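User: For documentation purposes, I need each entry recorded in a consistent format: the amino acid sequence on its own, followed directly by the corresponding structure tokens. There are two entries in this batch. Please keep commentary to a minimum and don't merge the entries.

Assistant: Recorded as requested. Entry 1:
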Amino acid sequence: MTNVTHSFHIVTPNDTNHEDDSVVSNDFSTTLGALILGLVFLLGVPGNLFVVWSIVARIQRRSVTTLLILNLACADGFLMALTVFFIIYLAKQSWVFGNVMCKGVFYLCNTNMYASIFLITLMSIHRLLAVVFPRRVSRRITRKVVRRVILGMWVLVMLISLPSLVFRDVRVDSDEKDKKRLVCAPNHTLPRHVRFQYAFETVSGFFLPYVIIITCYVMILRRLRQTKFQRKVRSENLILAIVVTFGLFWLPYHVINMIQVAAEWYPDNSPTREILDHIAKSSRAVTSALAFISSCANPVLYTFAGKSYIKQNGLAFMAKLFEGTASEQTGNKSRVLRNNGHNVGDSSNTNSSTQNGVIQ
């Protein structure tokens, strides 16, 4: 360990680079964060593995939404596996995994954060297209196209997560009792680096995706009000629940990001900056742990959505749920044609099938 300290940046009271941003500096925050992450790990890893198994092993013909949910479960499950590092970090109040893992683990966390929100955004966009242009969606948005879009999304999230790889290092920190410990902390050398990283993360990983999502659902509601049937289908409710859940659990994390950015606009000795810094430092561990909850919440949502299938289908209930959302479009279109007796090109038939045919 003595050799390790020479390879890391040592923080001293006079060091201008020191941000005192260690998430392990507050005993209550670290204890609460470790407990939350422990529960998240126990629920999230088996829950997301069950979702992946349900789709891969039980569903042969996967819809667009099912493919997106599969990727979301993979991203969430991988993120849940990484919580082991953070539980140990918070419990020991010291980073014991080295500098490479410090950069790598936080980079992978950011990558999966972006992947989760981008996949949810793609679900909302596809939902909009399926409602407004049902026939074009069925003809043009094939599984091959969807796979290419998903692959491009993964490449994009790996690129935009690079700041978390660059602005992160292991350093030696000292507490009030002059006790040394290793912390995996941001290594911003200039205030503009702090403003760039946290503002970029919140704008690209939360604000802009949610603007797109909200816009999609406003347009969907406007379209549904123009139709005769005012009925939501299971797929719409499921996607909307995923969107709301992600927003609720990630909002505190991004609020802390913005507080951190705001603090950097004030002089070093400003009382306002000290207050904002204290809020950010004391809340970072808890808000980060809450953000992790969103990744274990989706399997719970799927379970509630598919509870009507549990008694009849057993462990295959989740696969039945996803198959049900995929069959809503073709099933509802057939019923409209049978009940109305109109040609496919009839406007009333088109309106009915547009509303009910919401998923592929």
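Entry 2:
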Amino acid sequence: MVTYYSDRSVQVTSDAIRVGEHAYPLKELARVWHQRGARSWRAFAGRGALGAAIIGPLVAAAIGVVIAFQVDASLTVTIAIVGASCLVGLAAGPVADFVLEHMDRSYARGDRTLEIWATWRGRPVLLLQTGDALRFGKIYRALQRALESSTVG
């Protein structure tokens, strides 16, 4: 028996796919397909918040510079406000590194639920539903390889 994919809840082998407590022998699967489910607005909003976190320090710095030149203050105070605003703007660099890493992860996970369906014993069965696009891809490719090798042999 060859294992094509295995994690805590899904195992794809040359004999069957096991999802949780259910096992489906590959020989009994007539057709396998995938579907995209509804968009997760939570993931979409999360990406927007991450984008705002990157732009936030830059906007705050720009507002600080504008205020520094609008306020009727001494040259020293104006320079201090501009300097502080520039420091706030420079904070965008380290923040951007952290935020962009989370943004990359959000795209790897995806913003839709993904489903793997199969015709098993004459009826459609939902084998897997996940919002993790990276995991979904690994499982679906493993299932395809397992099905291809079971039809060849």
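Summary note for entry 2:
The CA atoms of residues 64 and 84 lie 8 Å apart.
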